[in-house]
């Protein structure tokens, strides 16, 4: 049985429904990210799991127990917020001890648990500091230790990295993931940063206007987006509107070129389909394999360090493609004709 389940969850604020029939089963020890733009309902779902918000309808259950009617402090959940939210007048030690003191744990137990937590986040040497004497990244690690100290059954992280600068964000997300794995704690992480979600999660829920557009592993979400929204939100995919020219042979027109795809399109001749193409999928190399060829003129080419991103004009339709930077290759020049080869499965038809 799944550990954390959300069944037919709905949420309205007054007349406005912000979560629509949300369903999900999360396994024990899984790391799940809710990914989506501002206002899509990620935080509201997290707050309903925590008990800060009631559900308008549906059931949230943890370890087989319906959480309806339970107050936040009765749910045994740890939470970390975007703003560090440490108690400014308490030392690091007292911040981490807070939940254990509230639970009236014996002094010796509190002492050893806090020490254990501070070791886990590599801040055992700063136990006597106050929050104002620490960096943002250190404060957020203390917030994590404080959330984990009472041994919660679920950890909820609401954009915990977004107030930090880019470098710390990457190192702290790796640290969070490593600690989460070490403890085996079921974790739900909210973010609007697709790279963060792709790098840290077992599974990602891509949220769109109060609904889950797609739930899947990072590679499923990136390589096989099911909707136009997922394709456009995750990664820098090309989204191309193409016309069905021969439904019987799955043939579509991209720019001025005819292309036959692998799977049935489910559309009639003359209808439009959206095709998603990853920029790194096509290759201009002589040796590249692929049944599908698309030829265009180079409209622009940008050196981005490890890759060169080039825009091709396929007769009115633009297509970006990436090549790894290699001292042996010369970047395409504007106006040059380039033929890219693709495997049939690289062209993904997505729902609108
Ligand atoms: P963000 O990343 O900006 O926090 P989000 O995806 O987490 O966005 P939510 O905070 O869950 O989005 O908000 C979803 C919708 O619900 C928004 O339209 C928001 O304005 C609305 N909303 C959230 N809380 C309340 C509230 N207490 N009263 C009324 N509307 C609310």
From TrEMBL:
One of its GO terms (biological process) is quaternary ammonium group transport. Residues 4-234 form the ABC transporter domain. The keyword Nucleotide-binding applies. GO terms for cellular component: ATP-binding cassette (ABC) transporter complex. SUPFAM superfamilies: MOP-like, P-loop containing nucleoside triphosphate hydrolases. Pfam families: ABC_tran, TOBE_2. Belongs to the ABC transporter superfamily. This is Putative spermidine/putrescine transport system ATP-binding protein.
